[in-house]
Structures are given as C-alpha cells and as structure tokens.
C-alpha cells in the first residue's frame, strides 16, 4: 500500500495518488474486458496506464488485488446509490427491490467482463471468490447494506434474526448476480424481473419470520449455508456456535 504522508503536502499528494490508483484500476478493467482476465498481465496494464510496472505493483500487489479494488469500488458505489433508495422508502419490498435494481444498474457496464471473469470467481479456493477472506471488505459492505434495508423498514424482526436475515438477503443477492452473469436478454431485463420478484418473496418471508414457530427454520437455513456452501464457514459466523454459547 502507498506510504502515508502526514506532512503539509499530504492532501495534494494523496489526491494524485488516488488518481493514479484509479487510472490503473480503470485501465485494468478495460483490458480485462478486451483481452480477458487470464491474458492480461500487470506489465500490459502498466504500459496502457502510462506508469512503470513497479508503480503498478506499488498500488496493487497483483491482478487479484485489482479485482479486490474493483469489488470494493462497486460495493461503495452501490452503498451510495442504495442510500438514496433507503432514505425515501420504508416498505421492505420497495427497499430491497430498489437496492437490488440499483446494483444491476451499477454493474451494467461490466457484464461482458463478468462473463469472462466468472470461471475465476467461481473457484471456491480463489481469492477472487466473493466468499474468500480476501473479499471480506467488499462482502461486509454489501451485507451492511442489507442490514440497513432491514433496520429502516416497517417490518418487525425478532432480535435473534437481526444478524441472520441480512446475511441470507446477501446470499439471495449472490444468486441474482449469478443469474445476471448468464442473462442474455436485452438490457438484462429478466435479471431486473428476478430482482423485483425476489424482493417480494423475501419481504413475505421476513414477515412470516415474525412468528415464533418459524424462527428456528430461518436459523436452520442460515446454518445450512454456513456449513455447506464453500467459503461460508469463513465468511459468516456459525449460528449454531452462538446458540451453544
């Protein structure tokens, strides 16, 4: 990571440093789309960006870190746009539908890249997996959006489900992302339909979860994903362990 500068020039230098970092990331994304992830080298990225190879590695240790930078940027952009939805909506279905469609809007320019890149991200042992330890920052940002979706809605949520439901909602979003990768309809129209219908079903599920008899089922579903979905044991806490304590 770039060295911190606490001197009087820290502001301008920081701004220039951020611009260089953004340039390298933008260049990498363009080359990944044009040439594919596997065929794009750090040297090619540095050349296209007009920086030295050493400078490129100064900001990003490798291609995997460039993808993590991309994840973080998408997550931050999504959080900012989602906040606009969450400030005007209180109905859970409307909040969730708005958040999911906002993600589709932001991700639209990167669809072809996502198709090429999917085989790398789908590997559960890859640092590029959304469930990997390396993706924790972007993942936590995404889950925090769903916490806000739930917390600011009119829906009543049992205390024991307040942490579990946002994680399940994020997993549902990952299902939408997977569908979006393979969606070949014009303007990804079916993905938008899936987002809206998924939001409706999720809202109904949250409403039903207020009944005490159904809460163990929700916890069991969460535990099922934690135990069996590759990477989830590292990504999310084990609810069974919490209950045992």
Give the count of helical stretches.
12
* Overall outline: elongated
In N-to-C order, the SSE pattern is HHHHHHHHHHHH
Instruction: State mean pLDDT (0 to 100 scale).
Output: 85
Radius of gyration: 20 Å
Largest sheet: none
Strand proportion, as a percent range, falls in under 5%
Would you report the number of β strands?
Answer: 0
Helical percentage? over 70%
Q: Which structural class is indicated by helix and strand composition?
A: mainly alpha
In the predicted model, the low-confidence regions spanning at least 5 consecutive residues are: 1-10, 238-245
Textual characterization of the structure:
- This protein has 245 residues and is mainly α.
- Helix content is 71%, strand content 0%.
- The chain is built from 12 helices and no strands.
- Helix 1 crosses helix 2, helix 4 packs parallel to helix 7 and helix 5 packs antiparallel against helix 7.
- The longest helix has 26 residues.
- It is elongated, with a radius of gyration of 20 Å.
What's the SSE blueprint?
Blueprint lengths: L9 H26 L6 H8 L3 H7 L3 H26 L3 H16 L3 H11 L14 H16 L12 H19 L6 H20 L6 H14 L3 H4 L3 H6 L1
Helix pairs in contact: 1-2, 1-6, 2-3, 4-5, 4-7, 5-7, 5-9, 7-8, 8-9
List keywords for this structure.
12 helices; 245 residues; single chain; disordered C terminus
Condensed summary:
By secondary structure, this protein is an all-alpha fold.
């Amino acid at each position: 990571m770039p060295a911190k500068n606490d001197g009087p020039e820290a502001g301008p230098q920081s701004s220039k440093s951020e611009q260089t970092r953004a340039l390298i990331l933008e260049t990498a994304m363009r080359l990944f789309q044009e040439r594919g992830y596997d065929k794009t080298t750090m040297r090619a990225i540095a050349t296209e960006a007009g920086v030295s190879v050493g400078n490129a590695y100064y900001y990003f240790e490798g291609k995997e870190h460039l993808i993590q930078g991309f994840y973080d940027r998408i997550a931050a952009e999504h959080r900012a746009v989602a906040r606009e939805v969450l400030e005007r909506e209180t109905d859970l279905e409307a909040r969730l539908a708005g958040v999911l469609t906002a993600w589709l809007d932001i991700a639209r320019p990167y669809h072809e890249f996502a198709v090429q890149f999917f085989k790398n991200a789908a590997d559960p042992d890859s640092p590029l997996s959304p469930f990997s330890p390396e993706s924790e920052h972007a993942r936590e940002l995404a889950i925090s959006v769903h916490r806000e979706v739930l917390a600011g809605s009119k829906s009543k949520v049992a205390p024991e489900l307040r942490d579990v439901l946002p994680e399940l909602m994020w997993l549902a979003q990952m299902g939408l992302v997977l569908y979006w990768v393979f969606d070949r309809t014009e303007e990804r129209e079916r993905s938008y339909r899936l987002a809206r219908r998924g939001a409706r079903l999720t809202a109904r599920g949250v409403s039903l979860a207020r009944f005490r008899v159904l809460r163990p089922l929700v916890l069991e579903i969460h535990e099922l994903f934690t135990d069996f979905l590759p990477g989830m044991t590292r990504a999310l806490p084990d609810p069974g362990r919490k209950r045992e304590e």
